[in-house]
Design a protein that fits this description.
This protein has about 425 residues and is of the alpha+beta class. Helix content is about 20%, strand content about 40%. A 9-stranded mixed β-sheet has the order 11-13-9-8-23-21-16-19-18, with no helix packed on it. Its main location: membrane.
Length: about 425
Amino acid sequence: MLQCIFLLSDSGEVMLEKQLTGHWVDRSICAWFWDQVLSRGDSLKQQPVIASPTHYLFQIVRGGITFLACTQVEMPPLMAVEFLCRVADVLNDYLEGLNEDLIKDNFVIVYELLDEMIDNGFPLTTEPNILREMIAPPNIVSKVLSVVTGSSSNVSDTLPGATASCVPWRTTDVKYANNEVYVDLVEEMDAIINRDGTLVKCEIYGEVQVNSHITGVPDLTLSFSNPSILDDVRFHPCVRFRPWESDLILSFVPPDGLFKLMSYRVKKLKSTPIYVKPQFTSAAGTSRINVMVGIRNDPGKMIDLITVQFQLPSCVLSADLTANHGLVNIFSNKTCSWSIDRIPKDKTPALSGTLVLETGLERLHVFPTFQVSFRIQGVALSGLRIDKLDPKVIPQRLYKGFRALTRGGSYEIRS
């Protein structure tokens, strides 16, 4: 069980402390943790579980905020990490974003949410739809009322309707004039491409997001044309596992509103939609850079919001970069951002320029890694296809919709 949760800012300040059991955890553990962060840097941030001299620590970082949980007893580490991820997702949903200012401005609501989400160190209520019935999301009206009346509590006086339901994530009295359900396949492509153009890694992380507005307690089944390509599937608690295990069909009673039905990976893909070809030549203390970007495999839909970013090496004193298409910005931390948006049909986007090296350095010996982001609407690059979505009990006039979206995730080109 978890004994305490801390929320730390990007400077190490303790913004919120929630003691979960009778065992009090001193804030000095946060000072020890932040000293480790400062001394070990990114290597520590990549470790979700850390053993301190007195506690086991679990951490995730979202929006510059570190969610830190502590315990002195044995417990499944994945449960602690997953719970912290759920807390971050709920706060992001409630506050419509996640940063230091939002946490401080809505301190009471964050504390009330933690009160309901965990009981005596064990996860309790983590379903956003149920939490919204128990704790009202922040808005201007509630903030004005809290100032005028002096009451800062957003907790409802009545139990949520789902407590009387056969499924804890849905109330029984939901009613709509129009019954609608929409399914989105949202995918992110992670890829690593070597300097010689060899594809080292290419895989998809995807989510099936459902937005359901159906009267009563519907029972739905969702099937795919090619479910065998899916790996590492994770389901919302509403999914019945046996139909998936036997027939690879999703059978579920959906929560009301928007929720993530499942997540998955598709591994060992053979191609990427975009190529980036960087080239460097050095002589006499300067280096010429030339980067070309184009479409490698046409997905059949428009690729837009294309951005190429890279970090100039520390040995570069100044840079003069221009592009024949798009906008180039060089920031104070030596990060170069090239916003291309869409690739035109009449020319290949190219970035070129000169890098001035520090005194005494004739050639460039450290080459940057290029990070690429993009968006393709209407296509799931994994190849996953939805076959059908059927209700067991057909309500009147059920409207169904399906969409797909692919974005660039950790998409790296080494130079």
